[in-house]
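Q: Convert this sequence to structure tokens.
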Amino acid sequence: MDVESFLRDPVSRRTFFRSSGVAFVGGSAVLVAACGDDEDEGGTATTGQAGKADVDILNSALDLELMAVAAYTAGAPLLKGDALKFGKQFLGHEQEHADALTQAIKDLGGTPNRAKPSYDFPELKSQADVVTFAIDLEQTAVAAYIDALPKLQDPKLRGTGAAIVTNEAEHISVLLGAQGKSPLEQAPDAFVTGEK
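A:
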């Protein structure tokens, strides 16, 4: 898949993220709670309704983090200099996020999701492709966490999620700098009007 056409085509991005555990509702990315017939998948009967809901939300967040780990790992060979340095650092952050979410799921008595054997990433041919794709992933993660935070029942989990979303937003700022763009150039408007 060509990264330029992927990034220009919102339908392709939505299809990719939907297959990766992210859906778009009203133009915003949201985590899709894990669904299945197996009662043990994503949680146990002892977690209770609130705990089961939190496990489902955390597993969806874990899916995003595992995808980010895979993306930074796949993109690393194309990075050089400072971009390689922060790419490795961000990979470490994403792994820490995945580890924290895995532990939180286990603490709730749930079963953490595992990384997929492969992800359908667009073809990354250059450092610019990797950075652009990473920005898209990070922006999707931020939107998904913001949507998920108020749905978490446990205040401690909301704190963990808030810390992660803050870190993801910091990643976006650094990645925009790597593109030579000021984060202020990319700042959204205060209100969504539907006009461009």
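The first strand starts at residue 22 and ends at 25.
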